[in-house]
Design brief:
Blueprint: H1 3-16, E1 20-27, E2 32-36, H2 43-63, E3 71-76, E4 79-86, E5 90-97, H3 102-121
Antiparallel strand pairs: 1-2, 1-5, 3-4, 4-5
Helix pairs in contact: 1-3
């Protein structure tokens, strides 16, 4: 996996959408892959919580015949946390302050999620 390309995607998203404060990418089971978070955020804990929340949302979407889950957003008094499925095996968490434009975030994440999925599923040529 190209960790540099993954970090670049996370930084690029932050540059596109004003108000993003933290980002993380994790496996669907909650294991942290990469994080760009403040010191006050526990990235491993965030990854685990995001995986649990996204898993529940995914099951709810399936149980109610709403199709494949794309995202879930939690709003708090100081901002929001958006959780996005990255293919079937990973997720991305985006934390934002109360000024973040969530609709802009949703639009900006779509191409980034596709590129992140490609980075995560890219086959290495080591040993070939």
């Amino acid at each position: 996996m190209d960790h540099k390309a993954l970090a670049q995607e996370m930084r690029g998203l932050r540059e596109q959408v004003t108000g993003i404060t933290d980002t993380a990418v994790a496996a669907a089971d909650g294991l942290l892959i990469a994080a760009d978070t403040a010191d006050t955020i526990d990235p491993e804990g965030l990854a685990a919580l995001a995986a649990a929340g996204l898993g529940l949302a995914r099951r709810t979407s399936e149980a109610t015949a709403r199709g494949a889950l794309h995202r879930t957003v939690t709003y708090g008094s100081h901002g929001c946390a958006a959780f996005y499925a990255v293919g079937d095996t990973a997720l991305m968490v985006v934390l934002g302050d109360e000024g973040m434009d969530v609709e802009r975030l949703h639009r900006a994440t779509q191409p980034a999620l596709r590129r992140i999925d490609l980075i995560l599923t890219e086959k290495t040529t080591e040993g070939v």
